[in-house]
Amino acid sequence: MRNLRGFNSGGKNNEELKEEMLKNYGVEKDAFEKYSAMDEDALISELIKSVTASKADGSYDPRKMTAFINAVSPSLTPEQREKLNNVVRIINGGI
């Protein structure tokens, strides 16, 4: 597997890359800062609430969820990856 540490797309700095990635997943910088202060349980709870609301209003896009999971999974520990997979099973099971 290739190591992409230090990869820099088009000479952008880390802050620009982070903002671009967040926008690609529909996350605003303020939301990122809010969620970065939460522990795992609070994040899982927030994710489930958000997905429930998105499914209710018809805006849930499973492709975006899959892309996000694929993007973050490599940086997770095996335990975190297992928790994420369990949350995805809950989400796909119709909460």
Entry summary:
With 95 residues, the chain is an all-alpha fold. The chain contains 5 helices and no strands.
The biggest beta sheet is recorded as: none
What proportion of the residues is helical, as a percent range? 55-70%
Globular, elongated, flat, extended or rod-shaped: what is the shape?
A: globular
What is the overall number of helices? Answer: 5
* Rg value: 14 Å
> How many beta-strand segments?
0
β-strand percent reads under 5%
Contiguous runs where pLDDT drops below 50 for at least 5 residues: none
Query: Span from first to last CA?
Result: 34 Å
Write the H/E string, N to C: HHHHH
Helix-strand makeup class: mainly alpha
Mean pLDDT: 75
How many structural domains does the protein architecture include? 1
Write up what this structure looks like.
This protein is an all-alpha fold and 95 residues long. The protein has one domain (12-92). The chain has helices at 14-24, 29-36, 40-57, 62-72, 78-92. The longest helix has 18 residues, at 40-57. The N and C termini lie far apart (34 Å).
Topology at a glance:
Layout lengths: L13 H11 L4 H8 L3 H18 L4 H11 L5 H15 L3
